[in-house]
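Batch manifest, entry 17 of 40.
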Amino acid sequence: MQVFYAPDIKGDTYILDEKESRHVVRVMRMPKGSPVRLIDGSGNLYKGIISEPDQKRCVITLTGITEGFEERNYRLHLAVSPLKNTERFGWLIEKIVEIGVDEITPVISNHTEKTGIREERLNNIIISAMKQSLKARKPLLNPPVSFDEYISSATSSVKLIAHCNETVERVRITEACPPKSDTVIMIGPEGDFSEKEVKDAISEGFVSIHLGKGRLRTETAGIAACFSVYLINQ
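Output type: structure tokens
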């Protein structure tokens, strides 16, 4: 069933923009009466049917709503270094949205090679992933911040920093992340966090963790961290 993102939805009908309308009528060839679903980014899932299949302004009549659709019993914030390869960073964002994440903050650390992000592109990836995986709540994408600024302002009840520095004591993520927790996990750049950064984070209340015996690339580590939290809460 086709899924649409409708952040401004209200009333009993919703009119798709011209691009979506053309896709529905000319490409998908969906006739009048076809069932569809809409997500508003605030946690609500709507059911509807196409009542006017116009290729410029396709009208959907709403038939039902599920408030708080598939709300999770935990909150996850991933603070991750941007990658030099924007395609890989976009792929990371896509996958963690599919798994389940509430907030994403790009963090600029000592070894970060690319300090900026393409916010519009990443938000489009987030919306596409939401539609693909039927997530009704849109994760918040924050602007990039420095490492020091982030660790001093993080307020989650569980604060974790994942790294590969074996000179600093680490515990498994499953030991440091209890179920139903408000959790933030920091993931470093290709060159990892520096030892000083790890120690500074620990001094700010972060717990030093690892994601297993192997050394993972940033995008793989981010996905592994989110999926570990997902499994902990099942």
